[in-house]
Amino acid sequence: MREEPRGAMSAPLAGIRILEVGVMLAGPYATMMLADLGAEVIKVEPPGGEISRQVSDSYFASLNRNKRSVCLDLASAAGRQRLGELAADSHALLVNMKPSVIRKLGLTYDAMREFNPKLVCVALTGYGLDGGDDPAFDYVVQAATGVAAMTGDPDGPPTLPGYSSADNSTGLTAALGLLAQVVSGRGGQVDVSLRDVMLSQLNYRAAAYLNDGVAPRRHPNGAHSYYVPAQLFPTADGHLALFITHDGFWKSFAGEAGIGGFEKMADRAARRDDVLELVTAVLATDTARGWEQRLRPLGIPAAAVRSLPEALEATPEAVVTAGEFRLVGGSVKVGGYDPQYRPAPTLDEYSAGTQSS
């Protein structure tokens, strides 16, 4: 009898089996989150392995822990037949490839339903299954959807975040769409694209333009378009993120900082430059860490800007071990469930008969 891994009896997704034909980041991230929650994820890799194995061992480990690997040539009849056998006993198939490749390999619901009519097929693409094969890497999509244009200082060039925000966001959305259709009890096609996800995340920015004709514009130091003060500020040492969203926060901050006036949000918005000049001068009297220690007990949203190493050192509870790698653990915490973190699979280990934990 297969030994149940630690916490498996209470795993939220225990009993759910997902096939992944994923490459690089978005698709593998989606299924890894589901695997962390107890789903059995079988990663279908081509002969030679998925391309991200060539990036680095830590890169692959960070996106593929808790999975199994099976090596199939999906362009062959034998490979397709084996995939069908796996699909017959699975709940979902998630694929992130170009639409033409997804269709050519028969990875849509219309093609897979012969093996399992209740199978949920998720296509994660750049512009949708019917959107064509134009290249759709993270940076390209950020540029195409307006994200890069609205990021950075007003007088500087467009700027990209320091991590793959489009890929990660689309992975999250794909996991949500997959689970929604699985819960419905119906098979079917789920279509998720990087472009649509990034546009949807521009919610209030897009609404301001569509309804009020207000196009987004950049403010210095990443300042919020509505709230004042809400941005990065230089201090005596380091930068501080301060996010004053209502009058109560302002009252507490002003009391600690010794500032008078500007009691109402409308006043602060109307006199943005005056407020920022005053706040900048006050924050220069202490360090970013000092202000953080002073403002946090008052319930004011403020944080010193930290590097990634500093952030990880400050949150050791977020770091887990999966095999030989230290990684950031799952972000969904479920009461009563203690997740297990297994290492990323060796190539074709599922076929080799190493399914046990």
Automatic annotation (TrEMBL):
<dbReference type="InterPro" id="IPR044855">
    <property type="entry name" value="CoA-Trfase_III_dom3_sf"/>
</dbReference>
<dbReference type="GO" id="GO:0008410">
    <property type="term" value="F:CoA-transferase activity"/>
</dbReference>
<dbReference type="InterPro" id="IPR050483">
    <property type="entry name" value="CoA-transferase_III_domain"/>
</dbReference>
<dbReference type="InterPro" id="IPR023606">
    <property type="entry name" value="CoA-Trfase_III_dom_1_sf"/>
</dbReference>
<protein>
    <submittedName>
        <fullName>CoA transferase</fullName>
    </submittedName>
</protein>
<dbReference type="InterPro" id="IPR003673">
    <property type="entry name" value="CoA-Trfase_fam_III"/>
</dbReference>
<dbReference type="Pfam" id="PF02515">
    <property type="entry name" value="CoA_transf_3"/>
</dbReference>
<keyword id="KW-0808">Transferase</keyword>
